[in-house]
Design a protein that fits this description.
The chain is an alpha+beta fold and 368 residues long. It has helices at 40-61, 65-76, 82-100, 110-122, 127-148, 172-183, 188-199, 203-208, 261-270, 290-303, 312-324, 329-336, 341-348, 353-361, and strands spanning 2-3, 8-10, 16-24, 30-37, 214-215, 220-223, 226-231, 241-246, 255-258. The strands form 3 sheets. A 4-stranded antiparallel β-sheet has the order 1-2-3-4, with helices on one face. Strands 5-6-9 form a 3-stranded antiparallel β-sheet.
Amino acid sequence: MSKRGENIYKRKDNRWEGRYIKEYDDNGKARFGYIYAKSYREAKEKLSDYKHNVRQRITSNKKLFSLFCDEWITLSRNRVKNSTYIKYRGITEKYIKPSLGSFLPQNISTVIIEKFSNKLLLNKLSTKTVRDILTIIKTILKYCKRQIGPTFPDIEIVLPKENKTSIRVLSLEEQTKFIRFLSADMDETKFGVLLSLLTGMRIGEICALRWQDISLEKKTIQVSSSMQRLKTFNPTSSTKTTIVIGETKSHASARIIPLTNYAISLCKKIKPKNNNAFVLTGSAENFIEPRTLQYKFRKYTEACNLQNVHFHVLRHTFATRCVEVGFEIKSLSEILGHSSVKITLDRYVHSSLELKKLNMDKLAAVGF
């Protein structure tokens, strides 16, 4: 076998073989890898690529987990919505890097992740938030494995079990009382809250809603945007957060909601001349953000002596009323802006005891 420099040899079968150090074992002994090519030039190029990959892998083996987090965040910037990117970055900076950033990723184990998860739960974070954090860690570790190579260990991440809690839904008596309160001396904000109850719209969607999105002729609402308060990472900014009006929560959330005649009659009473005005303010320049609306909503519920009611209860109440009157579930799912009927059934359909009794009474038709 003739040699031509750089550990490249011409074999007896006229192929060219290149040898490179692939790794070192625990005793410091070199382990070699081999490439094969039809020409010396091709072998040289292949060998150069393989050596480069080995150097990259060795470098990756010395990088801390925090650096991999930063790289993954940077790569995510143009792959997800701005609000999702900010969420990822916020979770990474606040929770992941302070606790795990100083580790070499190959030294992170299932036990370390489990201890980290338990610490978050002990610090009173919600199960959903912990699950979100662990899901991001799992994705970053997959990125680490792609960079470091097959020697990267498999790490099992067990998500904490979500404890299903009963969702608060307004009773018919509470609903009637609340509607009566909102209808009395109704201003733009009270109207917006009532419209949310009548349509199941999310708080961010109602805050971003303008009158141009409501068609009195077609009796519909076009939901196409949502308002959020998002964290800013600009060190020169004078504020830590900023209001952003952007896309809806998901593709399915962009939807058209038909309006009842009652809702249309309310719209005609409150509609301003400026079609570009925000529904909650009647002004095209001024808006009410979700945090402010939550504060006003709390004042409304306190005035009605309604306990443990937050804004999202309106959405659950709307869905429950729809089920009680026999709404077709697929239609309800699309009106709520869900990507699947399963989400609607699992999270938003709350059957009252009265409805259960009515359904049980139907068994009389078959002799039960």
